[in-house]
Write a structure and sequence with these properties.
Chain B: InterPro entries: MBL (IPR050698), RibonucZ/Hydroxyglut_hydro (IPR036866), Xnuc_lig_assoc (IPR026360). Chain B: Its EC number is 3.1.-.-. Chain B: Keywords: Exonuclease, Hydrolase, Ligase, Nuclease. The complex is a heterodimer of chains A (529) and B (363). Chain A has 529 residues and is an alpha+beta fold. Among the domains of chain A are: 190 residues, D-amino Acid Aminotransferase, Chain A, domain 1 (2-Layer Sandwich); 119 residues, Nucleic acid-binding proteins (OB fold (Dihydrolipoamide Acetyltransferase, E2P), Beta Barrel), CATH 2.40.50. Chain A has 20 helices and 20 strands. Chain A is globular. The mean pLDDT of chain A is 88. With 363 residues, chain B is of the alpha/beta class. Chain B has two domains: 201 residues, Ribonuclease Z/Hydroxyacylglutathione hydrolase-like (Metallo-beta-lactamase, Chain A); 127 residues, 3-Layer(aba) Sandwich (Rossmann fold), CATH 3.40.50. In chain B, strands 7-8-9-10-11-18-19 form a seven-stranded mixed beta sheet, with helices on one face. In chain B, strands 1-2-3-4-5-6 form a six-stranded mixed beta sheet. In chain B, strand 9 and strand 10 form a beta hairpin. The longest helix of chain B has 14 residues. The radius of gyration of chain B is 21 Å and the shape is globular. The chains are: A alpha+beta (529), B alpha/beta (363). At the A-B interface, helix 1, helix 5 and helix 6 of A face helix 7 and helix 9 of B.
Chain lengths: 529, 363
């Protein structure tokens, strides 16, 4: 447990992505089997055992610590696992007993019956130090939340694996991933060059998805319109539906299994195929604002009311497997024909085909794209007619061409320090627009400016600070930021009642007086649907 | 237990008035009426007794200042001409009569020169401890518990989540990180008075004998400590150093500087901060700290509780920090306890860190 705890601690504080990868690589290289496999499973959310409820942990702590002191401490720290890890009284007489290994903890929890978990945890807490207690409590409450995604862990695996197998990519790891289970001995053996690549598995594994590049102005000049097909880019989340051999899975773009949150889709996957599409919320075939879909994301389970209020829908883009047949090597045009044939034959419920957009010249598409303001359309996709379905983001075959961004002149209200290389700069800005005489915040952005502009912005923030709250500064209403964003939706979470999609700084209007910035009514008028 | 200890039980004896009759909280600070002086006043007063040199305790402009020779040296260094009218030194353990009060200064173990103020008047003994800690610190004289009737304590880390791990283990973390990232600078945020010199002595004790680079704001007090006999080894100014020289170097700077503009001169720095607050991960993360070092000049929860035990006072007044928990704890141990609403103290480890380099350790 100590090595795992040290890893968790180091990851918690490591600000940079590359630094995290370095820590993970180091762990895979030094921790033995099965420990490193359990660690990998914990980081990728693939461990399953009887979890302990936070309330039970709190109750347990209250048997060792004055409940009032516990409550005051929890108030102060704000995180239960951390509070209990720090406050747990160490018993000197236990100092010599050996803390459990990660293997013992995982195997103990997997074997535990209802009612036994807390007793096990109590015994372990007594032998661990505060880092170990923190790691244990994070593990058993089911959420590490330490800024490591499953994808990052797999990226680190591939990076580490390249020492013995220089050709390995993260997509190769993805390809075999879902055929495997923790503690992943055969995966480590393969990456160390001791064994063959594990079978992809006939199972309902995730296949790495094909991604696109943004279409730049200069690309359009050189691309031959006849070589490309166009279709709408829908504003939901990209998913992969896998129904193989009786198993059904719904995966996000990064390979996270989101089946549990979308039973209304999974229930209708009574076929044998792997499909690529866009997950949306739609009522009677009409796509609802992204905000409605948002209510259903990041949940492990779903309530009947959510199913009723925000029914899910999948708009199909592509077919990867039809039964056992791997179609990924076919051209886009051939796959599209197969998809249409398949759809005709199967007629799945809660799904439809994303229609193709016929065109002959780029100018036609420009007009269509600008006209498309209705819900659910984010822009256009251009796909080379002869392109195979390739893992990752190859340059050339697929382009996304988002519709023109909306823009708004806003006033900077707060600035916050960035992270990692930006930690000495105020680089995250909250901006607002006028409502009557007051400014109301409407969004936050931390991109869209150059390094040179960042230095200027940082200086401006420091010279115009009116109040400070920890890492946040409130600034004078004196700098206009022209913000670009994809769309705006009603939101109950924001004071202004509106939420922007993908806001970024478009231009810094050093020249424009703040009172001339836009008003909330202007933004409200941009809401569609 | 002292004789004074038993004298105070009733509290209504006119010959032995309860200390809250002669020690008062006034806007200027804690006022000892029969002596006509304030302890660590926040505004200029006629007579001040100063526990230690941190700038929220030692402020300029008092007409008459009484403190240990160490604290007076620190004050002269930091304030120059503004230090006050007359300065009077009182060695640890020596007694002095001021008005109707016997005053004694006893080591507090917080920073060089830091003292508890022991007050005796009308049959009662009150100890105002200032800031203190209980663990070993080579840069100052260790805390001495003094049995008393009323103990006035700080509560900076007055929650049981604050347990400072052993200092050498924390220094070990720093040395390990330096070995792991030999090409990077390690920038450690430390307060100018006390923490800086203590960290240096801890590093030296752990065998680190390379030069240590200092932000300009830390230099004067390091010189003062050296002149008073605290061995710090070779120190070099970081502010004028070449970036190349700072690769792999250990650089100390005020906490506000390590993750700010000043640090841009360093080679891909690992940002560390040495403070008791670093115990709470979320706090450390918010501050952009990559390497938190839990090293504090304040008593942790266990030390606070142990100290209440050691002084055996039947009554405790809790000043600055997280008073509520310590008052609750003391009460549950049968000690009368209450929070003293003193304003103007923000322990030097607090979040409200001054931005300007040179403002040392307090706001």
């Amino acid at each position: 447990m100590n090595r795992f705890a040290a890893l968790i601690d180091a990851l918690v504080f490591m600000p940079s992505r590359n630094g995290k990868i370095r820590l993970l690589v180091e762990h895979f290289a030094t921790a033995p089997d099965p420990e490193r496999g359990w660690a990998l499973a914990a980081l990728t959310g693939a461990l399953s055992f009887r979890e302990a409820k936070p309330a039970a942990i709190r109750e347990l702590a209250a048997t060792r610590v004055d409940p009032q002191l516990l409550a005051l401490s929890y108030d102060y720290v704000g995180d239960l696992a951390e509070t209990v890890a720090l406050i747990w009284p160490e018993r000197p007489e236990r100092a010599n007993s050996l803390p459990p290994s990660l293997d013992e903890v995982v195997e103990g929890l997997r074997a535990a019956r209802r009612g036994q978990v807390i007793g096990l945890v109590e015994g372990w807490l007594d032998t661990l130090d505060s880092s170990g207690r923190f790691a244990l409590l994070k593990l058993i409450t089911g959420a590490l939340r330490i800024g490591v995604s499953a994808r990052l862990a797999k990226t680190a695996l591939a990076e580490w694996g390249r020492a013995a197998r220089p050709e390995v990519s993260v997509d190769d790891v993805e390809e075999v991933w879902h055929g495997l289970t923790a503690p992943y001995r055969e995966l480590f053996a393969w990456l160390e060059g001791r064994a063959e690549q594990p079978a992809t598995g006939s199972g309902a594994g995730f296949r790495p998805m094909m991604l696109s590049h943004p279409l730049e102005e200069e690309d359009r000049a050189v691309l031959d319109p006849a070589a490309y097909a166009a279709e709408w880019k829908w504003d939901g989340i990209r998913v992969q539906m896998v129904a193989r051999g009786g198993e059904r899975r719904l995966y996000s773009r990064t390979g996270d299994d989101v089946s549990g949150a979308f039973p209304d889709i999974v229930d209708h996957m009574s076929f044998d195929a792997v499909l690529d599409g866009e997950l949306l919320v739609a009522r009677d075939g009409v796509v609802a604002p992204f905000n409605d879909l948002q209510q259903r994301l990041n949940r492990k389970t779903v309530t009947a009311q959510m199913l009723r209020d925000g029914p899910a829908w999948v708009r199909l883009y592509d077919i990867l497997f039809d039964g056992e047949e791997d179609l990924r090597g076919l051209s886009f045009v051939e796959r599209r024909a197969r998809l249409e044939r398949w759809f005709e034959a199967v007629q799945p419920r809660r799904m439809d085909l994303s229609p193709m957009v016929p065109f002959t010249a780029w100018d036609e598409l420009v007009a269509l794209r600008e006209g498309a303001r209705e819900n659910g359309i984010e822009g256009l996709m251009l796909k080379r007619r002869d392109s195979a379905y390739l893992a990752g983001r190859p340059k050339g075959p697929w382009f996304k061409w988002k519709r023109g961004a909306l823009t708004l002149d806003t006033v900077m209200m707060y600035a916050q320090r960035g992270h990692g290389k930006r930690s000495s700069y105020y680089s995250d800005y909250t901006f607002g627009v006028w409502r009557g005489e007051e400014l109301v915040p409407v969004g936050k952005a931390y991109s869209g400016f150059t390094d040179a502009e960042l230095i200027e912005l940082d200086r401006w923030v420091r010279n115009h600070t009116t109040r400070r709250y920890g890492p946040v500064r409130e600034v004078e209403a004196g700098l206009v930021l022209e913000v670009a964003f994809d769309s705006v939706h009603p939101s109950t979470r924001h004071k202004s009642g509106l939420a922007m999609r993908f806001p970024r700084i478009h231009r810094i209007r050093w020249d424009k007086p703040a009172p001339e910035a836009d008003r909330l009514e202007t933004l409200a008028a941009m809401v569609v649907g | 237990m002292s004789a004074a200890h038993q004298s105070n039980q009733g509290g209504s004896n006119p010959d032995r008035p309860h200390p809250d009759k002669w020690i008062k909280v006034l806007p200027e600070g804690l006022y000892v009426e029969p002596g006509g002086f304030y302890i660590d006043p926040v505004r200029p007063v006629e007579r001040a007794v100063v526990t230690h040199g941190h700038s929220d305790h030692a402020r300029p402009g008092n007409r008459h200042v009484l403190a240990t020779p160490g604290t007076l040296a620190v004050m002269r260094q930091r304030m120059g001409e503004g230090v006050g009218g007359s300065l009077q030194a009182l060695e640890y353990g020596e007694s002095l009569r001021i008005g109707d009060v016997a005053v004694r200064l006893v080591p507090a173990g917080h920073v060089l020169g830091s003292a508890q103020v022991v007050l005796e008047h009308a049959g009662s003994r009150v100890v105002v401890s200032g800031d203190y800690k209980r663990r070993l610190d080579r840069t100052c004289t260790p805390f001495e518990p003094v049995p008393c009737d009323v103990f006035v304590t700080e509560a900076t880390f007055g929650l049981p989540v604050f347990r400072h791990p052993p200092d050498l283990g924390e220094v070990g973390k720093l040395l390990h990180s330096m070995a792991l990232f030999p090409e990077r600078s390690h920038a450690v945020g430390v307060y100018a008075l006390g923490k800086c010199q203590r960290l240096i002595t801890l590093l030296r004790a752990a065998g680190y004998d390379r030069p240590i680079w200092l932000h300009g704001a830390l230099e004067p007090l390091c010189r003062l400590y050296s002149s008073l006999g605290v061995e710090l080894g070779e120190l070099r100014p970081a502010t004028v150093a070449a970036k190349e020289d700072l690769k792999g170097a250990l650089v100390l700077a005020p906490p506000a500087a390590v993750a700010d503009r000043w640090a841009r001169r360093l080679a891909d720095p690992v940002v560390a901060v040495a403070s008791g607050w670093m115990r709470v991960r979320q706090r450390a993360r918010q501050r952009g700290v990559e390497l938190p070092l839990v090293i504090s000049d304040h008593a942790d929860w266990d030390e606070l509780c142990q100290t209440l035990e050691d002084v055996g006072a039947p009554e405790v007044w809790v000043t600055h920090g997280r008073e509520e928990a310590l008052v609750h704890y003391a009460t549950s141990r049968g000690i009368r306890a209450r929070a003293l609403a003193l304003i103007g103290f923000e322990d030097e480890d607090s979040e409200g860190i001054p931005e300007k380099a040179g403002e040392g350790e307090a706001s």
